[in-house]
Amino acid sequence: MNTLVAEQTLQLTRRFKAPRERVFAFFSSAEAIQQWFGPGPVQVVECSADFRVGGHYRIKAFNPDNSNVVVAVGVYQEITPPSKITYTWKWEDDEDWANCESLVSFEFTAVGDETELHLTQTGFPSAESCRNHTHGWTGCFHKLDALLTGASLPVFKPCC
Q1: Is the pLDDT of residue 2 over 60?
Q2: Which of 6, 41, 65, 155 has the greatest CB tally within 10 Å of its CB?
Q3: Is 132 helix (H, G, I), strand (E, B) or coil?
Q4: What topology does CATH give the domain 2-149?
Q5: pTM
Q6: What is the largest CA-CA distance in the chain?
Q7: Which of 116, 89, 96, 123 is nearest to 19 (CA)?
Q8: CA of 125: how far to CAs of 8, 9, 50, in Å?
Q9: Which residues, at least 6 apart from 112, have a Cβ–Cβ distance to it below 8 Å?
Q10: pLDDT band at 157 (very low <50, low <70, confident <90, very high)
Q11: What pLDDT, in 10s, does the model give residues 30-89?
Protein backbone atom coordinates (compact mmCIF):
# COMPACT_ATOMS: atom_id res chain seq x y z
CA MET A 1 0.00 0.00 0.00
CA ASN A 2 1.30 3.47 -0.79
CA THR A 3 -0.22 6.90 -0.40
CA LEU A 4 0.83 10.39 -1.40
CA VAL A 5 -0.39 12.89 1.18
CA ALA A 6 -0.50 16.54 0.12
CA GLU A 7 1.81 15.56 -2.80
CA GLN A 8 4.87 15.95 -0.58
CA THR A 9 4.56 13.02 1.84
CA LEU A 10 5.23 9.40 0.97
CA GLN A 11 3.81 6.59 3.07
CA LEU A 12 4.48 2.91 2.42
CA THR A 13 3.53 -0.12 4.50
CA ARG A 14 4.94 -3.57 3.92
CA ARG A 15 4.67 -6.80 5.90
CA PHE A 16 7.72 -9.06 6.13
CA LYS A 17 7.74 -12.70 7.20
CA ALA A 18 10.46 -12.18 9.80
CA PRO A 19 10.63 -10.96 13.42
CA ARG A 20 11.03 -7.22 13.80
CA GLU A 21 14.47 -7.55 15.43
CA ARG A 22 15.71 -9.25 12.28
CA VAL A 23 14.10 -6.68 9.96
CA PHE A 24 15.43 -3.81 12.11
CA ALA A 25 18.94 -5.28 11.91
CA PHE A 26 18.93 -4.81 8.11
CA PHE A 27 18.77 -1.03 8.73
CA SER A 28 21.45 -0.83 11.42
CA SER A 29 24.77 -1.27 9.57
CA ALA A 30 26.37 -0.32 6.28
CA GLU A 31 26.96 -4.00 5.48
CA ALA A 32 23.26 -4.77 5.88
CA ILE A 33 21.96 -1.65 4.09
CA GLN A 34 24.03 -2.28 0.97
CA GLN A 35 22.33 -5.67 0.52
CA TRP A 36 18.86 -4.22 -0.10
CA PHE A 37 19.21 -0.53 -0.94
CA GLY A 38 18.14 0.53 -4.45
CA PRO A 39 15.40 -0.72 -6.75
CA GLY A 40 15.94 -3.39 -9.38
CA PRO A 41 19.49 -3.57 -10.75
CA VAL A 42 20.76 -0.66 -8.63
CA GLN A 43 23.77 -1.70 -6.56
CA VAL A 44 25.42 0.01 -3.63
CA VAL A 45 29.10 0.63 -4.42
CA GLU A 46 29.98 2.49 -1.20
CA CYS A 47 28.13 2.69 2.08
CA SER A 48 28.91 4.09 5.51
CA ALA A 49 26.56 4.29 8.49
CA ASP A 50 27.44 5.63 11.92
CA PHE A 51 24.32 4.10 13.46
CA ARG A 52 23.68 6.38 16.42
CA VAL A 53 21.65 9.53 16.98
CA GLY A 54 23.67 12.33 15.37
CA GLY A 55 25.65 9.84 13.27
CA HIS A 56 25.92 10.26 9.52
CA TYR A 57 25.24 7.83 6.70
CA ARG A 58 26.28 7.96 3.04
CA ILE A 59 25.08 5.57 0.33
CA LYS A 60 26.59 5.65 -3.16
CA ALA A 61 24.67 3.56 -5.68
CA PHE A 62 25.16 2.65 -9.33
CA ASN A 63 22.46 1.79 -11.86
CA PRO A 64 23.94 -0.44 -14.62
CA ASP A 65 20.89 0.16 -16.85
CA ASN A 66 21.76 3.84 -17.38
CA SER A 67 25.22 4.18 -15.73
CA ASN A 68 23.87 6.75 -13.25
CA VAL A 69 25.64 7.14 -9.93
CA VAL A 70 23.72 8.72 -7.05
CA VAL A 71 24.66 9.50 -3.47
CA ALA A 72 22.19 9.78 -0.59
CA VAL A 73 23.35 11.35 2.69
CA GLY A 74 21.82 12.15 6.02
CA VAL A 75 21.94 12.18 9.80
CA TYR A 76 20.23 9.79 12.20
CA GLN A 77 17.66 11.71 14.27
CA GLU A 78 16.03 8.91 16.28
CA ILE A 79 16.94 5.27 16.90
CA THR A 80 14.67 3.20 19.13
CA PRO A 81 15.54 -0.49 18.69
CA PRO A 82 13.72 -2.43 17.42
CA SER A 83 10.77 -0.12 16.75
CA LYS A 84 11.83 3.10 15.01
CA ILE A 85 14.54 4.80 12.95
CA THR A 86 14.35 8.39 11.68
CA TYR A 87 16.96 10.19 9.60
CA THR A 88 17.38 13.12 7.27
CA TRP A 89 17.72 12.44 3.54
CA LYS A 90 19.34 14.44 0.75
CA TRP A 91 20.74 13.61 -2.69
CA GLU A 92 24.24 14.99 -3.26
CA ASP A 93 24.94 16.80 -6.53
CA ASP A 94 21.25 17.10 -7.45
CA GLU A 95 20.14 20.68 -8.02
CA ASP A 96 16.52 19.80 -7.16
CA TRP A 97 17.77 18.91 -3.66
CA ALA A 98 20.17 21.87 -3.27
CA ASN A 99 17.88 23.66 -0.79
CA CYS A 100 15.85 20.68 0.33
CA GLU A 101 16.24 18.07 3.04
CA SER A 102 13.76 15.25 3.53
CA LEU A 103 12.92 13.32 6.69
CA VAL A 104 12.54 9.51 6.56
CA SER A 105 10.96 7.49 9.34
CA PHE A 106 10.69 3.70 9.61
CA GLU A 107 8.37 2.16 12.20
CA PHE A 108 8.69 -1.58 12.85
CA THR A 109 5.65 -3.28 14.39
CA ALA A 110 5.61 -6.92 15.47
CA VAL A 111 2.60 -8.81 14.16
CA GLY A 112 2.99 -12.30 15.57
CA ASP A 113 6.25 -13.61 14.09
CA GLU A 114 6.08 -11.11 11.22
CA THR A 115 6.92 -7.41 10.95
CA GLU A 116 4.88 -4.58 9.55
CA LEU A 117 7.18 -1.83 8.35
CA HIS A 118 5.72 1.63 7.88
CA LEU A 119 7.81 4.22 6.04
CA THR A 120 6.99 7.93 6.02
CA GLN A 121 9.09 10.39 4.03
CA THR A 122 8.37 14.12 3.97
CA GLY A 123 9.93 17.22 2.47
CA PHE A 124 10.34 16.46 -1.22
CA PRO A 125 11.31 19.19 -3.67
CA SER A 126 8.44 18.17 -5.98
CA ALA A 127 5.55 15.76 -6.45
CA GLU A 128 7.60 14.03 -9.16
CA SER A 129 10.41 13.40 -6.69
CA CYS A 130 7.90 11.94 -4.26
CA ARG A 131 6.63 9.56 -6.98
CA ASN A 132 10.19 8.54 -7.87
CA HIS A 133 10.92 7.76 -4.22
CA THR A 134 7.76 5.65 -4.03
CA HIS A 135 9.22 3.57 -6.87
CA GLY A 136 12.64 3.44 -5.22
CA TRP A 137 11.50 2.44 -1.74
CA THR A 138 9.11 -0.15 -3.18
CA GLY A 139 12.04 -1.73 -5.02
CA CYS A 140 14.16 -1.64 -1.85
CA PHE A 141 11.43 -3.45 0.05
CA HIS A 142 11.19 -6.12 -2.68
CA LYS A 143 14.92 -6.77 -2.26
CA LEU A 144 14.65 -6.79 1.53
CA ASP A 145 11.78 -9.27 1.38
CA ALA A 146 13.83 -11.59 -0.86
CA LEU A 147 16.77 -11.41 1.57
CA LEU A 148 14.56 -12.18 4.56
CA THR A 149 12.81 -15.12 2.92
CA GLY A 150 15.71 -16.54 0.91
CA ALA A 151 13.82 -16.00 -2.35
CA SER A 152 15.49 -14.91 -5.57
CA LEU A 153 15.56 -11.18 -6.20
CA PRO A 154 12.49 -9.98 -8.11
CA VAL A 155 12.53 -8.59 -11.63
CA PHE A 156 11.82 -4.89 -11.33
CA LYS A 157 10.41 -2.56 -13.97
CA PRO A 158 11.94 0.87 -14.58
CA CYS A 159 10.25 3.86 -13.04
CA CYS A 160 7.62 6.13 -14.43
Answers
A1: no
A2: 41
A3: helix
A4: Alpha-D-Glucose-1,6-Bisphosphate; Chain A, domain 4 (3.30.530)
A5: 0.90
A6: 44
A7: 116
A8: 8, 11, 26
A9: none
A10: low
A11: 999 999 999 999 999 999 999 999 999 999 999 999 999 999 999 999 999 999 999 999
